[in-house]
Amino acid sequence: MKNVYRLLSLVAVVAISSSLLTATFMTSPLNTSSTDLYKNNISEQSFEGIGIKPLDVEMAHKIREMGGLLLQVSNANALTEEEALKMSKDGRKIVEFTVIGQTVNLPIMGGTPDAPKMYQAMTFNQQVPGPTLRVKQGDIVKFTLAVPEGEMFPHGRSIHAAQGSVVPGILAVNPGESRTTYFIAEVPGIFKYHCTGVNVADMDRHVLSGMYGLIIVDPVDGYKPLLVRSTATEDGEIKQEFTRYSADAYELQFNFNNLYIDANGNYDINAMLMEKPTQSVINGMALGYTPNNDLDALINGDANKDILPGFQPWQAFTNQYKGQLIYVPTNEHIRIFAENHGTQTIFVHFIGEIFDRITMGNRIQAEGVESWGIPGSTGAIIDIVFENPGVYVWANHDYSNAMTGHVAIFVAGNFFKEALRDDLGDAVDGINYYAEALGQPSDAIPPPGLNTKLWPKFNLHGLYTDERAAEIATIVENWGIPRA
Ligand SMILES: [Cu+2]
User: Fold this and answer.
1) pLDDT at position 20, please?
2) What DSSP assignment string belongs to 374-422?
3) How many whole angstroms from 344 Cα to the centroid of ligand 1?
4) Structure pTM?
């Protein structure tokens, strides 16, 4: 295995040296298996007829002897540490963000609490997806990827919110090493970051096994207020009305992805190439936002009587893996950050609602739309107001992905008010929505930023190791949200 990595870095050095020194190769070094790629490809003949000055072959060999150009540019990032520190003195904030590349086993839909089905997950910080980074437009991000000693694989990172040379940042960080990059978050919007595998080889496996996360860059002057249209009658005529909601909103994050896994829990490249997902996950879990047996007891009066028979795969699980629902208030501005990390376009839709506004980057794309297509490695900010208490289904309208897991259930407002009145009396009138008592699932809550209204309570939920789940609880409490 080590020889493969060595060959890959040799290929990378050759490719990079050539692109820095000359315009192009006549033949790509990636097409030859010779170990002496350099001499075979860089020669005066390579440049015949293309009108550029031949490369000084002797100089090229000297560069090769001193270890390649890559060593000489190892600190050449979008921004150097010195520049970042100087800019911070001029008023820019430096936000530090460190992720640890680690392979861990995590449960997958299909097992039982007594015999959980597991898969080999590749993670940032022992959670899938990785932690969300939230900054303000103009902030400097100090992004560090560390790979601990003893980790099975090298890892890399690609940061879609950054602009600057991918060399050397994208290349492998070996176990026991770390790499730091500085960049200015110049463009507002939502972006993914992900592992680049081992010098981009095996990248599909690393990303689709869990090494992806979200970066939210808040616009420097904040989000836009939301106008929602409705109608009213006036003197027998129908008039258009506008309700204005302030930019401050309750926020949710949904990372969509596809899992390609064989019966033994290992990555299945053939399933990926055929685009046949084993499971389609939201925030790491297929059907993770579905009822659990506590809700069965609350709604059906019996913990063993499923609300959605056959559709509650995590219901009897404990701790962070237990199925949870999303609870939202009515007549409030809800802002959803939705990123598609998968390989197929998703067609997000609310069964029972209409999206009031879609923003990509910081530019409004549409208003009043039924569904929105989000291609791979793209995100959208969805603003929505739930006018009526009820049950809503947030789903991918691509049936193959919905049926393999891209479905989440929302309960808006005090939908069960009258059913609860017998037991609770007039106290039911004081309930706005159930997150006040039952909490919002922690993995659906982004870190607070500009214009964030904090959820009243949270519940631990997500694809985390137990060790990481304990840390997440502290992190969310530090945002000012108490545990339910
Ligand atoms: Cu990786």
Assistant:
1) 41
2) E-TTEEEEEEE---S-EEEEEEESSHHHHHTT-EEEEEESSTTHHHHHH
3) 21
4) 0.85
